[in-house]
Amino acid sequence: MSVRRPGPRAALIAAASSVLLLAACTSREQSATPSTGGGGPAASAASVASAAPAGDACTLSRTGYPKIDPKTAIIGFSQSEKEANPFRIAETQSIRDEAAALGIPADHLLVTNAQSDLNKQIGDIKSLLDRGAQLLIVAPLNSDGLQPALDAAKAKKVPVVTIDRKVTSQPCTDYLTFIGSDFVQQGRRAAAELARVSGGTGKVAILLGSSGNNVTTDRTQGFKEELAKTPGLSVVAEQTGEFDRSKGQAVMEQLIQSHPDLTAVYAENDEMGVGAVNALRTAGKTPGKDVKIVSIDGTRNAVQLIADGSYNAVIESNPRFGRLAFQTLQQFADGRPVPASIVISDDSYDETNAAQKAGNAY
User: From which residue to which does the signal peptide run (predicted)?
Assistant: First the structure.
């Protein structure tokens, strides 16, 4: 049977409508389905503005892939990092919770963890395909390097939804879509908060995330762009803590020695920020007062520190992708266009709301 392809205008309307539907279905006000990964709201599409141009929208007819209903399919989920990090714990749990909510049998959800090893993640994804995965959700370790795994999925006509970190491969050719935050905007929002809580003056250290992925690059770019609007704040040091609490603490200990006049810290995730708090306390300083701290994530530990007065602000990066990932796969199976990127809406925490919003943290 021949399929009549929509014209450009129709495709544009369809793509916008699809993202609007995602946003409506996953609104933060919705409470029909229990929240995943620590009790907070599921990730939701920010707005129609997050849709890609119509020409980039992906459809079944464009890919030539078979129609696979997520509710009856074998689904593989490739996690990138060990689940010692609250973000990864909540992310994996949201996938499991949504699969259960949809009635997907436990043996139809295959989960692997690459343990921060790119070669292992490539092997994991190929293994999922060998075990019969018909749909894939992948949390990439790095932006580059997964092409062999994506090629393997493409050869078997298995759609791949990437979450959290964006790969440099081509959407609708090498993978279906990316679902995640606007990381540049997160950095800008963090800089604006640091300018507010510091009074617009001080010496800033940046605890960078791990190299090789767009999250670190974009959060650094956004932060520096916004900080430049506040000439009284200057970056005096930046060093990677690799998104790890113990490494963030070790780096902060060194920075306290080399920059004793440091007055502010921007940590590119909460785990490094909490590590910085530990280092400052050990050095006899009062975090949140002597040294202002702003970070990105939304973990329960960091949000509680704000409520306790030992931290200043957190820009949320919501890890609860399960509902939106499965809805996107269903949308694709139904023949509706899927945009190349689906940008989610992220909240924030500060001294005015941390105590009351702590239940949303993960």
Answer: 1-23
